[in-house]
Design a protein that fits this description.
Layout lengths: L4 H5 L2 H27 L11 H5 L4 H36 L1
Helix pairs in contact: 2-4
Length: about 100
């Protein structure tokens, strides 16, 4: 009955899609960090063997990416919460 209604009156569907994509990126970055920690890589020192460096994960870069994506994720959560609050308020006022 209301299929597509919220997409026409708000940005909620696009925010949900962006939030899902952000969550997937957070998961992937977290997996790379976990893999680096499982191999006992510190990421903050230069590797001595160039062959070992090819498969190494730069932990510092990954942690920066994780912090950046977390900030993006929090912003999307805040925007989506505000969108839902607005929709809820409009629906209550009409009922």
């Amino acid at each position: 009955m209301l299929y597509g209604f919220f997409g026409r009156v708000s940005a909620a569907p696009r925010l949900v899609e962006a939030l899902d994509a952000s969550q997937q990126r957070l998961t992937m970055i977290g997996q790379r960090v976990a893999a680096a920690k499982a191999r006992n890589e510190t990421g903050f020192v230069l590797p001595t063997d160039p062959a070992a460096a090819a498969g190494a994960i730069d932990l510092e870069t990954e942690m920066a990416a994780l912090a950046n994506e977390d900030t993006n994720n929090q912003a999307l959560n805040t925007l989506l919460r505000g969108t839902y609050d607005t929709l809820r308020s409009v629906i209550r006022d009409r009922g």
